[in-house]
Amino acid sequence: MSYSLKQLKLETAFTQIQKGNYQAAFPTIRQFAENGDADCQYQLGFMYQTGAGVKQDNDLAAKWYTKAAEQGDVDCQVILAEWYDDNEQYDLAAKWYAVAAEQGDVDAQNNLARLYAEGLGFEQDYDKAEQYWQMAAVQGDDEALYNLGVIHDDALGRDPNYEKAADFYLQAAHLGNADAMVNLGMLYQEGFGVPEDAAQANEWFLQAAELGNETAQLNLGINYAEGLGVMQDFDLAEKWWTIAAKQGNKDAEAALKELAIIRAEMNKF
């Protein structure tokens, strides 16, 4: 079969897949996969994993994903890693995360860092976790930057360094990470690593609260109730606690009950 005819046959198979007709595409996809085509090996793995056009078979899915992964297909490396991760086969998960991480995959870098940080599959090692979070952070990943802040903030495997924590949180916050905004706000509120500044803390709490972060909503409510960095305002405290409570925040629910008691006492006079 000439190159052009082979290519036409393969393109026809992928057109069938785009139409959802996996069964018609299967013979060609299998043929090319058996001949070493990594894209077809990935597709065949997907078909067996999901039962698209074939009988669902996880063992065959893993077989074809592995063949593609061994050829350097990053997507398949991550799929395999997440598969083993979900099934608590952390040694195999780590193997494929590491291969994908070295190819620059941010999700693999973050997940491998998590395995090291939690001691899953091997001994807990925050230095290794930091190494892989740094790799993701260099690529501008907000979650990695946040986690780098946490290890310095919470003194995980090292002495606390609030200045470094604040720097990483700030970078993550500028990328829209609400958890980083909350933690940065707490550093400003306590004066750890940054000048103590309740008003600045509330600015970060507000940004995170508007993004739907319930901890920020709770903290903002507390500061309005106590007049910390803002004018005391029970109405705004109630507003933010109500929003947090609707997300299931028990502390906000308790705060609303306490606020109702305070207001009832105030109304007696």
TrEMBL record:
InterPro entries: Sel1-like, Sel1_AlgK, TPR-like_helical_dom_sf
Entry-linked Pfam families: Sel1 (PF08238)
Protein name: Sel1 repeat protein
